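input
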Amino acid sequence: MTEFDTRKERLEFNKLQKRLRRNVGSAIADYNMIEDGDKIMVCLSGGKDSYCMLDILLNLQKTAPVSFEIVAVNLDQKQPGFPPEVLPAYLSGLGVPFHILEKDTYSVVTELVPEGKTYCGLCSRLRRGTLYGFAQQIGATKIALGHHRDDIIETLFLNMFYGGKLKAMPPKLLSDDKQNVVIRPLAYCKEEDLEAYAGLKEFPIIPCNLCGSQDNLQRQVIKEMLQGWEKQHPGRLETIFAAIKSVAPSQLADTDLFDFASLQIERPSRIGMVNLWDGETGGDKDSVSMPDSSPSDDMVRESA
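output
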């Protein structure tokens, strides 16, 4: 890690580190992500987010009130230029148990996806299937992914704008076959904090050339839109994320989520009237009630 030139730089780093650890700890507690005896499979891609996740979890492991095991796993997808020696050297230096899986998903993706189209969907499905299967093979009880707060917000808008669905990435997820639980410990962390932390820690970042080589990705368009909003209105992303955590099903329009069809009025036979008399005018202060009988025909005609 870089040596700090001034006391102020050291203090700023400490504040950043404490904030990230606090955010990760809060997310873990809020969603019961890690339990006593868990074996956490930390998926390490070589990007800044997964490095930060591993670093923070290793530190929390020392002070957590529960005991859990960490094993790092990297999937070498045989992308051109991927340096296979970087992660083994880094993880060996940390003394962290790890596995490197080799599976040529790159050839599959480039063969099946038409030129100019986004690789991400197929790539992530192939990667997820491999990791799910390996988690069961090694007896991992949780799979930790490095998605952060900004990833979750971007996914919300991607699904709204391009998929017509109101959904994002949950901090904790049970797979469809109920064989794996996925956790996202960085769910409360800002991308800018993670980027700053990774730079200060000098993690050996491995870029994703497969995805990065594609221009005008939908996610990049969404990211630029959100960054523009945040620049014009600081705090907007935090408000959007708060909305993801506070959903009112009756105020949306999903008939599977809320029973709109069965809504019925619940009106008493006598309706108390609010006292409209002002005491200073000498008016009667007693409240009045609507009569039990229906209005006369004459009253109806006059009101019409």
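quick obs: The beta strands are 39-43, 69-76, 98-102, 142-144, 172-174, 181-183.
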